[in-house]
């Protein structure tokens, strides 16, 4: 029955023939992806074994059922038998399922034990969930960055064609070397999220105040995509994961590149920025980090997310300190997080400047990175 | 073994007695008329009707929300509603269907059928019965009103995990908590009433092991309700304190634990899902023997299987939480205990099939819905076994595979059983048979619609589509298209059921005799159709050797 439906559903798709988008993972399009790690392959074969056992059970059970329905129709003159209760039969149909379950449980237990053994990892990555982006920190490499949705909003709103990796692409992917044991530590900055990459067969909740762990050894270079799997608020669908697995040499040079970029970024925090420079950069930062709640036009979604356009805090000189304070340290008791520890001083200065000048707020205020640095160091 | 031929003289006599009793009962004649009659009624049949109509209304409200969700998911992109409203729709759909449609529908069936199946004149606590019903409209008015409040209604999923439902929740959440408290009190009072009725008001000579299985399954369900609804009340009270009084039960920053919320919620939530399926087992166990014209294969093993499922339901809760980071030993314990549930559940399915085997089967409307229940519930059960395997669950968890699984158990499962029950007992309630042509159309459109909706979800889930997202990768577009078409087909075809019910209420259709179905057993069929308002003023005669479903 299951199998039949499975096949006919496949057939239906072939007949209607809509071209499937480029594969987003190693899945055939309607089955679990076998993935690219030993664990993911083990889980896949476990899944297929249980699946076929379930299909076999379904065929037997529904076979007997439909055969009975067909043969013992009253319209064909079937006379009811009078038997009921038979201890032998009842013991058999209790024992056989029990035996099947034991057979399923043995490989499942073995796989689970492997999944739980995160020892001897060579690389540690701290993954932090944010509403609605991921933050990655390479614990021994002094590298950390945010990873945001890369799909432009115009695609989401249908103003332009959707790309092959619609909603599954990010600005800064997590880059990992193949063949090395990587340990992930998971936590969250706000609500519970879940970090899921089907091809790695890792799905783990990120819980505020707690740390979970998991590990992987990626066998093949490639790009592996996933999504947040735990409802985490309005933009739950818009915080994808992109893991780029590369050879060790490529990974090492990528690390160097990241350090150089970080150094250059830090250096530019020392100089004076022009208002235009700050506004331009601020617009990008605002779109990525602020627009989900406060909206692209600054109108917000009151009462949860206040409007920034025309907000006295953003339009008056007296509001300046309060404004900077809110962005840097958050508003306790609300869903406004503090970005002081997560964004660079350049980004912070730029976005605050942008908010004080965009949508007719027009204060002409330029908040300098050096000013933010001084506040944060205090 | 007694012959099952009808009519049985003693049975006929008690039927005429009951009619006479109803007509002669002058002290019942002074009840209010019009609307107040329904507000003040303490009669189990009227309250049962109120529950059923309330559940039907909620089924359509919750169903409309599901269609809003399916409309948004019809194609990728932000097409129809904003994500924030999408979250409110999925949340309210879940809450309304669970607490407003399925549970009240089963309580309504219990109100109507438990007293007449055990030969009682009414529920044991009639005024409490009235109170527990009228709490529900209040509760759901409050719940629905949150949609119009500033900041919108609940948007954190029907499982309302903290801290999304506490620190990050909309201001209306306290109203949501109040609504849940009221619905919970209603359920607890209803359960107390059902237990009191079953344990005290059975007709003389009817032992527990002589009760129809619908009564048995409800007795066990009622104990589950009493055990777990207070846990729900506890957890939402802790939320209320976290939100309004500065406690930190679920906030790690104050020494609390968000995972504690999930343990408490699922300690309630898992028995809760059995609350929504055990009475369905009772219904199908009544209907299958009737239309197979053959006794249920194993009455005692059905009772024991139901009890085992109920007991096991208390030790499996963390299988909803395989990805929260439980220690390995806990993971293994909950995997094994969850797999064990397949055994008693299998016993039930095998029993129904053994009942069909060598029967004399006909395919009236209740039978069609029951047979569809068996097939579709089994599909949901098998995907449940797959989900129990913890390593595989790392891939299934929080995907559309889970959505497919629980909808298979709840819609083609529980909802089909409720529809089967309605078609089965409508002749007794209204005095006329449901319209066959409408009913058949309703059945086939429902079967096609429900499978078209939920079967493709297995595939989209396996291929990697997370649940509770308003927008998705292009890979999932085909399956979502099918699901949306199926959803609208299923939703719209339920209007046919409303037409069937209206025709019955108006008395349009073939008149039904007391014994409305040829092969039906049980005290309800000794009453005239429609059943008079007051029945069994004197306890009916019950001879276990002849009338018990467990007789030899």
Automatic annotation (TrEMBL), chain A:
<feature type="signal peptide">
    <location>
        <begin position="1"/>
        <end position="21"/>
    </location>
</feature>
<comment type="function">
    <text>Subunits I and II form the functional core of the enzyme complex. Electrons originating in cytochrome c are transferred via heme a and Cu(A) to the binuclear center formed by heme a3 and Cu(B).</text>
</comment>
<dbReference type="InterPro" id="IPR008972">
    <property type="entry name" value="Cupredoxin"/>
</dbReference>
<dbReference type="InterPro" id="IPR009056">
    <property type="entry name" value="Cyt_c-like_dom"/>
</dbReference>
<dbReference type="InterPro" id="IPR014222">
    <property type="entry name" value="Cyt_c_oxidase_su2"/>
</dbReference>
<dbReference type="InterPro" id="IPR011759">
    <property type="entry name" value="Cyt_c_oxidase_su2_TM_dom"/>
</dbReference>
<keyword id="KW-0186">Copper</keyword>
<comment type="similarity">
    <text>Belongs to the cytochrome c oxidase subunit 2 family.</text>
</comment>
<dbReference type="Pfam" id="PF00116">
    <property type="entry name" value="COX2"/>
</dbReference>
<keyword id="KW-0479">Metal-binding</keyword>
<feature type="domain" description="Cytochrome oxidase subunit II transmembrane region profile">
    <location>
        <begin position="24"/>
        <end position="119"/>
    </location>
</feature>
<keyword id="KW-0732">Signal</keyword>
<feature type="domain" description="Cytochrome c">
    <location>
        <begin position="277"/>
        <end position="359"/>
    </location>
</feature>
<dbReference type="InterPro" id="IPR036909">
    <property type="entry name" value="Cyt_c-like_dom_sf"/>
</dbReference>
<keyword id="KW-0679">Respiratory chain</keyword>
<keyword id="KW-0349">Heme</keyword>
<keyword id="KW-0812">Transmembrane</keyword>
<keyword id="KW-0249">Electron transport</keyword>
<dbReference type="GO" id="GO:0020037">
    <property type="term" value="F:heme binding"/>
</dbReference>
<dbReference type="GO" id="GO:0005507">
    <property type="term" value="F:copper ion binding"/>
</dbReference>
<dbReference type="GO" id="GO:0016491">
    <property type="term" value="F:oxidoreductase activity"/>
</dbReference>
<dbReference type="Pfam" id="PF13442">
    <property type="entry name" value="Cytochrome_CBB3"/>
</dbReference>
Automatic annotation (TrEMBL), chain B:
<dbReference type="InterPro" id="IPR023616">
    <property type="entry name" value="Cyt_c_oxase-like_su1_dom"/>
</dbReference>
<dbReference type="GO" id="GO:0004129">
    <property type="term" value="F:cytochrome-c oxidase activity"/>
</dbReference>
<feature type="transmembrane region" description="Helical">
    <location>
        <begin position="131"/>
        <end position="149"/>
    </location>
</feature>
<dbReference type="Pfam" id="PF00115">
    <property type="entry name" value="COX1"/>
</dbReference>
<dbReference type="InterPro" id="IPR036927">
    <property type="entry name" value="Cyt_c_oxase-like_su1_sf"/>
</dbReference>
<protein>
    <recommendedName>
        <fullName>Cytochrome c oxidase subunit 1</fullName>
        <ecNumber>7.1.1.9</ecNumber>
    </recommendedName>
</protein>
<feature type="transmembrane region" description="Helical">
    <location>
        <begin position="91"/>
        <end position="110"/>
    </location>
</feature>
<comment type="pathway">
    <text>Energy metabolism; oxidative phosphorylation.</text>
</comment>
<keyword id="KW-0479">Metal-binding</keyword>
<feature type="transmembrane region" description="Helical">
    <location>
        <begin position="175"/>
        <end position="201"/>
    </location>
</feature>
<feature type="transmembrane region" description="Helical">
    <location>
        <begin position="273"/>
        <end position="292"/>
    </location>
</feature>
<keyword id="KW-0349">Heme</keyword>
<keyword id="KW-0249">Electron transport</keyword>
<dbReference type="GO" id="GO:0015990">
    <property type="term" value="P:electron transport coupled proton transport"/>
</dbReference>
<keyword id="KW-0679">Respiratory chain</keyword>
<feature type="transmembrane region" description="Helical">
    <location>
        <begin position="299"/>
        <end position="320"/>
    </location>
</feature>
<keyword id="KW-1003">Cell membrane</keyword>
<keyword id="KW-0813">Transport</keyword>
<keyword id="KW-1278">Translocase</keyword>
<feature type="domain" description="Cytochrome oxidase subunit I profile">
    <location>
        <begin position="38"/>
        <end position="543"/>
    </location>
</feature>
<feature type="region of interest" description="Disordered">
    <location>
        <begin position="529"/>
        <end position="552"/>
    </location>
</feature>
<keyword id="KW-0472">Membrane</keyword>
């Amino acid at each position: 029955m299951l199998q039949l439906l499975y096949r006919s559903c496949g057939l239906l798709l072939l007949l209607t023939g809509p071209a499937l988008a480029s594969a987003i993972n190693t899945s055939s399009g309607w089955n679990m992806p076998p993935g690219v790690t030993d664990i993911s392959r083990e889980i896949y074969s476990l899944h297929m074994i249980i699946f076929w056992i379930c299909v076999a059970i379904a065929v037997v059970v529904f076979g007997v059922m439909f055969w009975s329905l067909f043969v013992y129709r009253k319209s064909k003159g079937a006379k009811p038998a009078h038997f009921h209760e038979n201890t032998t039969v009842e013991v058999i149909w209790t024992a056989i399922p029990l035996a099947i379950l034991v057979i399923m449980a043995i490989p499942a237990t073995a796989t689970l034990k492997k999944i739980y053994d995160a020892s001897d990892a060579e690389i540690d990555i701290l993954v932090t969930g944010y509403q609605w982006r991921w933050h990655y920190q390479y614990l021994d490499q002094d590298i950390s960055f945010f990873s945001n949705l890369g799909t432009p909003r115009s695609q989401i709103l249908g103003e332009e064609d959707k790309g092959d990796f619609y909603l599954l692409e990010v600005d800064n992917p997590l880059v990992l070397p193949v063949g090395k044991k990587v340990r992930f530590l998971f936590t969250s900055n706000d609500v519970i999220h879940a970090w899921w990459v089907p091809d790695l067969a890792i799905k783990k909740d990120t819980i505020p105040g707690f740390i979970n762990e998991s590990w992987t050894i990626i066998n093949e270079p490639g790009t592996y995509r996933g999504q947040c799997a735990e409802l985490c608020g309005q933009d739950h669908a818009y915080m994808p994961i992109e893991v780029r697995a590369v050879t060790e040499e490529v990974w090492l040079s990528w690390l160097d590149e990241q350090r150089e970029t970080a150094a250059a970024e830090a250096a530019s925090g020392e100089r004076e920025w022009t208002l235009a420079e700050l506004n331009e950069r601020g617009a990008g930062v605002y779109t990525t980090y602020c627009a989900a709640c406060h909206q692209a036009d600054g109108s917000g979604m009151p009462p949860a997310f206040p409007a920034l356009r025309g907000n006295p805090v953003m339009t008056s000189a007296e509001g300046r300190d309060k404004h900077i304070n809110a962005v840097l340290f958050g508003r306790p008791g609300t869903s406004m997080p503090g970005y002081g520890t997560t964004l660079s001083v350049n980004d912070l200065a730029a976005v605050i400047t942008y908010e004080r000048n965009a949508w007719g707020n027009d204060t002409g205020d330029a908040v300098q990175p050096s000013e933010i640095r001084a506040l944060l160091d205090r | 073994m007694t012959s099952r031929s009808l009519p049985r003289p003693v049975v006929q006599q008690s039927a005429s007695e009951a009619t006479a009793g109803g007509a002669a009962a002058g002290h019942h004649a002074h009840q209010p008329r019009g609307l107040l009659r329904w507000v003040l009624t303490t009669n189990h049949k009227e309250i049962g009707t109120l529950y059923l109509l309330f559940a039907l209304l909620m089924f359509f409200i919750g169903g409309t929300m599901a269609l809003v969700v399916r409309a948004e998911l019809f194609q990728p992109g932000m097409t129809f509603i904003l994500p924030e409203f999408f979250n409110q729709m999925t949340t309210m759909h879940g809450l309304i269907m669970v607490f407003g449609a399925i549970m009240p529908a089963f309580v309504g069936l219990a109100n109507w059928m438990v007293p007449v199946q055990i030969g009682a004149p009414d529920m044991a606590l009639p005024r409490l019965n009235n109170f527990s019903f009228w709490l529900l409209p209040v509760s759901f008015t409050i719940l629905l009103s949150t949609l119009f409040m500033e900041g919108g209604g609940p948007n954190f999923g029907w499982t309302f995990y903290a801290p999304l439902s506490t620190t990050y929740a909309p201001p209306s959440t306290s109203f949501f908590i109040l609504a849940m408290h009221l619905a919970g009190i209603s359920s607890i009072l209803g359960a107390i009433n059902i237990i009191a009725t079953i344990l005290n008001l059975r007709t003389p000579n009817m032992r527990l092991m002589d009760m129809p299985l619908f009564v048995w399954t409800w007795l066990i369900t009622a104990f589950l309700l009493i055990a777990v609804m207070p846990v729900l009340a506890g957890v939402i009270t802790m939320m209320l304190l976290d939100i309004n009084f500065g406690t930190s039960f679920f906030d790690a920053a104050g020494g609390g634990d968000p995972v504690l919320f999930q343990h408490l919620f699922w300690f309630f939530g898992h028995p809760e899902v059995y609350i929504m399926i055990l009475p369905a087992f009772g219904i199908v166990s009544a209907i299958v023997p009737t239309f197979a014209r053959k006794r249920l294969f194993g009455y005692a093993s059905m009772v024991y299987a139901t009890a085992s499922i109920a007991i096991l339901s208390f030790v499996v809760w963390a299988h909803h939480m395989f990805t929260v980071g439980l220690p390995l030993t806990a993971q293994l314990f909950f995997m094994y205990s969850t797999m064990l549930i397949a055994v008693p559940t299998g016993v039930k399915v095998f029993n129904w099939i053994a009942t069909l085997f060598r029967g004399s089967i006909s395919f009236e409307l209740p039978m069609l819905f029951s047979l569809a229940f068996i097939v579709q519930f089994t599909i949901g059960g098998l995907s449940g076994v797959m989900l129990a395997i913890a390593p595989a669950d790392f891939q299934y968890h929080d995907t559309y595979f889970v959505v497919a699984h629980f909808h298979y158990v709840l819609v083609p499962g529980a909802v089909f059983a409720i529809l089967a029950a309605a078609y089965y007992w409508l002749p007794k309630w209204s005095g006329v048979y449901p319209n066959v042509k409408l009913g058949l159309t309703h059945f086939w459109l429902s079967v096609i619609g429900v499978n078209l909706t939920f079967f493709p979800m297995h595939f989209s889930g396996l291929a990697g589509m997370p649940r509770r997202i308003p927008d998705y990768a292009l890979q999932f577009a085909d399956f979502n298209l099918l699901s949306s078409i199926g959803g609208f087909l299923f939703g719209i075809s339920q209007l046919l059921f409303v037409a069937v019910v209206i025709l019955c209420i108006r008395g349009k259709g073939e008149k039904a005799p007391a014994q409305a179905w040829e092969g039906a057993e049980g005290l309800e069929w000794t009453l005239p159709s429609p059943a008079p308002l007051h029945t069994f003023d004197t306890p009916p005669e019950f001879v276990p050797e002849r009338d018990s479903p467990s007789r030899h």
